[in-house]
């Protein structure tokens, strides 16, 4: 028997408000607090859960009024606890913007609480989950002076 339970989840974007401007890559994220359906989850029990997070993104091109809808989904094994995306947009020492598409979808570990309760109630839960290194051992961060093959903005 498959039980269907739909729950709306609020997402926040790293730039802008409700109107997204897709000139640059954007990161949408969900804040896990006591109103989140993920509040009871922990890093070591996430992959034992049975759910699917389905994300819909609706948009309208203002110049043509054409609508677009994108849908994707994630199961627990596809969710990375304690990771953050590498930046795609950077500035050279000369002040020029560069878009490094080789960093697209690359992640690095960040210090993250073991569970949301650890973050919101540190006295009751006082253990941190920390990783060092990155997901791709061959990746190197380099100083780029005049990038070749990058998209300049």
From TrEMBL:
InterPro entries: Ig_E-set, IRK_C, K_chnl_inward-rec_Kir, K_chnl_inward-rec_Kir1.1, K_chnl_inward-rec_Kir_cyto
UniProt main location, coarse: membrane
Keywords: Ion channel, Ion transport, Membrane, Potassium, Potassium transport, Transmembrane, Transmembrane helix, Transport, Voltage-gated channel
Membrane topology designation: Multi-pass membrane protein
Catalyzed chemical reaction(s): K(+)(in) = K(+)(out)
Molecular function GO terms recorded: ATP-activated inward rectifier potassium channel activity
Pfam families: IRK_C
UniProt KW Transmembrane keyword: yes
Superkingdom to which the source organism belongs: Eukaryota
Nucleotide-binding found in the keyword field: no
Record-level GO cellular component terms: monoatomic ion channel complex; plasma membrane
Domain Inward rectifier potassium channel C-terminal: 2-123
GO biological process, one term: regulation of monoatomic ion transmembrane transport
Subcellular location: Membrane
Entry-linked Gene3D superfamilies: G protein-activated inward rectifier potassium channel 1
UniProt record similarity statement: Belongs to the inward rectifier-type potassium channel (TC 1.A.2.1) family.
Name of the molecule in the record: Potassium inwardly-rectifying channel subfamily J member 1
Species, as recorded: Campylomormyrus compressirostris
Lineage: Eukaryota, Metazoa, Chordata, Craniata, Vertebrata
């Amino acid at each position: 028997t498959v039980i269907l339970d739909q729950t709306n989840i609020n997402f926040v974007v790293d730039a802008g408000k409700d109107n997204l401007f897709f000139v640059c890559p954007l990161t949408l994220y969900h804040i896990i607090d006591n109103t989140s359906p993920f509040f009871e989850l922990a890093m070591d029990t996430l992959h034992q859960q049975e759910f699917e997070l389905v994300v819909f993104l609706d948009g309208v091109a203002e110049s043509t009024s054409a609508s677009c809808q994108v849908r994707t989904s994630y199961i627990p094994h596809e969710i990375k606890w304690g990771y953050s995306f590498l930046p795609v947009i950077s500035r050279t020492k000369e002040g020029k913007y560069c878009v490094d598409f080789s960093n697209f979808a690359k992640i690095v570990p960040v210090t993250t609480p073991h569970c949301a309760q650890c973050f919101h109630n540190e006295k009751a839960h006082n253990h941190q989950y920390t990783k060092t290194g990155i997901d791709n051992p061959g990746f190197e961060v380099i100083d780029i002076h005049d990038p070749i093959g990058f998209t300049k903005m």
